[in-house]
Write a structure and sequence with these properties.
- By secondary structure, the protein is mainly beta.
- It has one domain: Jelly Rolls, CATH 2.60.120.
- Helices cover about 10% and strands about 40% of the residues.
- The chain is built from three helices and 17 strands.
- Strands 1, 3, 4, 5, 6, 8, 13, 14, 15 and 17 form a ten-stranded mixed beta sheet that branches. Strands 2-7-16-9-10-11-12 form a seven-stranded antiparallel beta sheet.
Amino acid sequence: MKRILLLAAIACLPLAAAQGKRAKNYVPKGYQLVWQDEFNEGTEPDAAKWTHVVMRQGMVNHELQNYVNHVTPAGTPVTQVKDGTLRINCFKEDGKVYSGRLNGNARTGWQNGYFEASIKLPKGKGTWPAFWMMPAANRMPNNGWPRCGEIDIMEEVGFTPNEVSSSIHTQAYNHTNKTHKTKAVTIKKAEGDFHIYSLLWTDDEIITYVDGKELLHLEKSVLGDTHDEWPFHYPFHIILNLAWGGDWGGQEGVDEDALPVTMEVDYVRVYQLPADKY
């Protein structure tokens, strides 16, 4: 009898595994894969898909890191592909803090779609990892931030560990006047385990999810349909970065003993409806 039960259990393993995979498929019906990076090849981000942002300390949000193009002046990588994941490393070297910021499909972006990434967040007071989006071709006059729009799919700051949030910023709704639209949730082991963060963006709605559970839900019919209220009518590109300190990340100080830290990304995938492909 024990042998029969064991064989039956083994026979069920493939089905259970398949069911587990299906349970993690949060892609809306009808959406088709149009862009992806599984980080399975090479040792650095694919230059055909990703662009490093170079930015010195203090240029944005009073952040303390220096963003460099893949490696520091001493040759240490701030971004690397290893064992099937992208690693964004933040560390102190020669008296400066270095980290990585990557723009995905920066030239063309996408207008509308379902955007998903599996990410493991770092630990430490001062960390500020993010998965977010900005306009891909911001050629409108007088259309700087926040009028251009910003979609934050996932952010976390180390002084509130495992609390992840989603937000949007527009001319009418932004954090500088405390009107930005945001929502946060605390999840088990956001720091240390992979979780799936995603965005469903249509002409009329922006919805974010954590592991398939809805977090932030915004509707154009409620917020308003002018450009200042809903500037999400042109392509946006993906951004992955790990900031150190700054207006939010350093709000309660930073702990340099936490360095080095790493934000790890298993994959990034973009899906669109056939009618939305851009």
